[in-house]
Model the fold of this input.
Amino acid sequence: MTDGTLLSIKDLVVEFPTGAGTVRAVDHVSLELGYGERLGIVGESGSGKSVLARTAMGLTRPGTARISGQVTIAGHPVLELGERRRRALWGREVAMVFQDPLSALHPITPIGEQIAEAARRDPRTTRRQAAARAVELLETVGIPQATRRVHARAHELSGGMRQRVAIAMAIACRPKLLFADEPTTALDVTVQARILDLFDQLCAEFGIGLVMVSHDLGVVGRHTDHVAVMYAGRIAERGPVRAVFARPSMRYTSALMAAIPRHRAAEQSLPRPIPGQPPNLLAPPPGCRFGPRCGQASPRCHAEQPPLLALGDAPGHEYACWHPGEADR
Amino acid sequence: MKQPIFTLENGSVRYGHGHPDAVSDVTVRLYPGEILGLVGESGCGKSTTARAMLGLVPLSAGRLTLHGTPVNPHDRRLRAAVQAIFQNPAASFNPRRSLLDSVAEPLRVHGQGTARQRRERALEELDRVGVTAQMAARRPNEVSGGQCQRAAIARATILRPEVLVCDEPVSALDVSIQAQILELLAELRTEQGLAMLFISHDLGVVASLCDRTAVMYAGRMVEQGAATEIAGNPRHPYSVALQDAVPSLDLSDGLAPRIRTRTGADDVDGRLLPGCRFAALCPSATPECTAAAPVLAELAPRHEVACHHPFDPAP
Ligand SMILES: Nc1ncnc2c1ncn2[C@@H]1O[C@H](COP(=O)(O)OP(=O)(O)O)[C@@H](O)[C@H]1O
Ligand SMILES: Nc1ncnc2c1ncn2[C@@H]1O[C@H](COP(=O)(O)OP(=O)(O)O)[C@@H](O)[C@H]1O
Ligand code: SF4
Ligand code: SF4
Ligand SMILES: [Mg+2]
Ligand SMILES: [Mg+2]
Done:
């Protein structure tokens, strides 16, 4: 690990033993993120995004899953730490924002108290300081009339305001890394746009590193620097956002981009479907996981798993495909 | 010009006394072979409009017409002519019965054919929407969301309705599957000349599928026009804000929003305001806006806007 690495994931495998067999939700994933950088993880539902994020944060309980590989956050070996030391990282080194802010909020306790409590995860913070910090944090996350709003309860707030409060709690102890798992999926687009702007602002202002998990490639496009596309537990493609968007190379990435409806296209056209369905992770296909749905698949694809290969022109742009190229739109 | 096949005219719905109207004075006209998209933020009244058109909630004002004549919401003609699909198809199927049985059910209710003929017809209909006989034998919880939505479409079309009301039919689906269903709906429009109301909160979906788009805000219709116009050249300030907010895959798109809504008024219920319901957030609001509610008026042929000061793209 180099000094510049905030998050390092090496060869992570996460498996869930179930009655019907073993589900490998994360399949040999490696990723790195520098301090202050923003990474988007995209993929369709069930591709392993949440399991990856939760496991990297140390939230997946070893009792429920078999985990192998390494994760370090700001130098801490997350998977090797005991329960107590892992918990001590939460809030102070790394925090998470979820799709449903109510999962992080108590419905009745005034929001100011909850934020203050989050701020007190740092033992150096006194009760008084924490109360002042709650007001300051509400202002930071864009909630007007903060001195009055500290007394509000979660159920009195709109969905967007609740998510702002959840973000305030997550950043209360100035973590270096923030995971956001579908943070705007439940919100209206106009509210989503403002919350995404807030993430931009927090990253710029406090140098927070961000891992944004989303099923929506568009959300990730403007609000992260790097993107990793997941399919059936594996990284299909990754690299600088602009490079990946401009030249999607693994066939799933290009098919995914063609399947997204174009909003302000000059000519109206229907998005292009991807045939079939994502694989059943209890019995995934051999070789390339996208093989059964891919128009370019060759016998090799069905036999051998493609490794991540570098694409010459953009540093860090890698794809896992035997026959790379763009979907002919 | 073509006559609308099915309309809601100046419809209002109120869920109980003491509540403001969930939708007020809303007019929706559906034409054969045309898909009308209905967009707007959650709570603006899209589903209520759909329910009113399906006769599932009573109108406190306004009426429905079918083929140009007023029709009672419980009229049997309406039941046969207008069918619906919803966001969560599994919930609308009997969990203990096969998809095939459920799809054949409307034929039984309408006393058509023998049991054997009904099965044949249901299998045919399922095949047409891409559900194999093997899939059809399964129960709703044994198939994927996409397969289930296909079966729901088969059940809705098996009686050959003239109108299909679709309330967020692709919102729960992943994009790759969503595109399959959109293709199927577009085919139904073209091949069967179905008139459709297509509700979605996804403006990209509506821009790519629909012929016309209607935008609702706080229970009122604020803009209606060709789908390409509403996506590319919206004129109501709310529509502009909505279109600006859509995250685009095209990173070279202009970054600057055309309109900045006023902040701090997010929690205001527009339905309780006198005059324009968007006034608390609208950057173009004037005293005129709070004094009198704007009415839908034609700005250009077949492009209606309810605003005292429509957005001008090139002022
Ligand atoms: N606790 C668990 N037990 C068994 N399977 C699980 C568990 N958590 C997740 N999975 C499975 O792992 C896969 C990846 O899930 P997830 O990471 O939640 O996907 P995503 O966030 O991309 O939608 C899915 O197939 C899911 O069913
Ligand atoms: N069954 C109901 N009882 C009371 N109020 C309702 C009911 N259904 C919807 N509403 C209210 O009516 C308004 C419009 O809701 P709805 O039509 O569901 O909006 P949308 O589909 O656009 O999200 C909202 O304020 C909502 O809270
Ligand atoms: S490796 Fe083969 S099957 Fe997989 S995406 Fe590439 S071409 Fe398609
Ligand atoms: S009527 Fe006035 S307040 Fe309403 S949208 Fe138009 S300019 Fe804005
Ligand atoms: Mg998830
Ligand atoms: Mg609705």
In short: The longest strand of chain B covers residues 6-13. Chain B touches chain A through 44 residues (CB under 8 Å). Residues 299 and 305 of chain B are 7 Å apart (CA to CA). DSSP finds twelve helices and twelve strands in chain B.
